[in-house]
Amino acid sequence: MLQAIVFDFDGLILDTETHEFQTFQDLFREHGAELPLEEWSRVVGSSDSDFDPYAYLERCVGKRLDREALKEKCRKRHLASIEGEKALPGVEDVLKQAQALGWKIGLASSSVRDWVEGHLESLGLRHYFECIRTREDVQRTKPDPSLYLQAAECLGVHPSEAVAVEDSPNGALAAKRAGMACIVVPNSVTAQFSFGSVDLRLSSLEELKLADWASGR
């Protein structure tokens, strides 16, 4: 019987991922290059990917670039692009549904804690989460299951008693490896990716009725 729900953050609660991909696409085009989505897919939902977009850009243009300057440019552009963004549709409603069911609520993110907690506070959603696990808490991030296993332990439930809500293949794989059920809600970038075996796929969290879905499992 399900007793908990664990959310991803980037691309699910706040759509940082679409803006980040656009930021890097713009950078590549400024250098006369293109960033293929299939290459970018390797980094979405993970901080342990072996894909380095700056190294890839250097290979595309055939010369060394000032990576630190490019990183700072992308960081500033990305922050500016998400300024004022609101939580994605349906997020708070699903959080309230989980509360009404008496479920424990957690979050597992490959991002750093300050990034996640800062945005949750700005969105007015931090109070919903009993437990948050981020990059600092594990040796390896998604698709490794450690973040989800730690979130379940923190919430005091067995992984089989929790459902993860994800937007990326790396995140969904991490949840399934941890032994959780997994609902995926891809964003405009990850909707084009191939997902493995998941329990439910939706186009928006607005479609999710937790009680109905849980009773029909």
Automatic annotation (TrEMBL):
Assigned keywords, A-Z: Hydrolase, Metal-binding
Top-level taxon of origin: Bacteria
Hydrolase among keywords: yes
GO molecular function terms noted in the UniProt entry: hydrolase activity; metal ion binding
Family per similarity comment: Belongs to the HAD-like hydrolase superfamily. CbbY/CbbZ/Gph/YieH family.
Listed name of the protein: HAD family hydrolase
